[in-house]
Design a protein that fits this description.
single chain; 155 residues; alpha+beta; 60s Ribosomal Protein L30, Chain: A; five-stranded mixed sheet; 3 helices
Length: 155
C-alpha cells in the first residue's frame, strides 16, 4: 500500500525513476542527524537528458518550469532511496536551491524554479513548504537548463 506522499505522486501521474548514480566523486545524498542533503539533480528522464539549452535563448520560461519539475522528481527519488522507500518519513522540506542556465539579461529565475517548488508542495502538502533560492548561471552540467538540490528533514 502506498503512503500519503506516494499516493499523491500517483494521483499526479508521476512515477519515480530509479535514482541516478553520481557522475563524479560525490554521493547522491548525505544523512546527518535528521536531515537529508540531496546533491543537485538535473533533467534526466528515463535515461535521457531533457531541456538542454539556455532559458531566455532557445528555451522559454515554461520549458524551464518543466525542466525544474523533472529535477524535483529526481530529488524525490533520491529522498525515497534515503528513506528506504518511505517518503512519509519526510517531516519538512527545508530548502530547495535552484540554478537556471540562462542569458545574462534573464531575470525570471524564480518563475522557472517554481516548477520544482510547486511539485514539492503538491507532493508533500504542508510539509512541502520550504525556503529556497533561484539563481542564474552561465552554464550547467551537460548543458541542462536547470539543476535543483534540496534539504529534507526526516523522522
Amino acid at each position: 500500500m502506498a503512503g500519503t506522499v506516494e499516493q499523491r505522486l500517483i494521483d499526479m501521474g508521476i512515477e519515480l525513476p530509479k535514482p541516478a548514480a553520481p557522475a563524479a566523486n560525490y554521493i547522491p545524498f548525505v544523512i546527518t542527524g535528521n536531515l537529508i542533503f540531496v546533491s543537485g539533480q538535473i533533467t534526466m528522464l528515463n535515461g535521457d537528458l531533457q531541456y538542454q539549452g539556455t532559458v531566455g535563448d532557445n528555451l522559454s520560461v515554461e520549458d524551464g518550469y518543466q525542466a525544474a519539475r523533472i529535477c524535483a522528481i529526481n530529488l524525490i527519488a533520491q529522498v525515497k532511496e534515503a528513506c528506504f522507500g518511505d517518503l512519509d518519513r519526510v517531516t519538512q522540506v527545508v530548502k530547495l536551491g535552484g540554478f537556471v542556465n540562462c542569458t545574462p539579461d534573464f531575470t525570471d529565475q524564480p518563475k522557472v524554479i517554481n516548477g520544482a517548488s510547486d511539485l514539492i508542495a503538491e507532493a508533500f502538502g504542508d510539509n512541502g513548504k520550504h525556503a529556497r533560492f533561484a539563481v542564474g548561471a552561465t552554464s550547467l552540467p551537460l548543458g541542462v537548463a536547470v539543476e535543483v538540490d534540496g534539504i529534507f528533514e526526516i523522522a
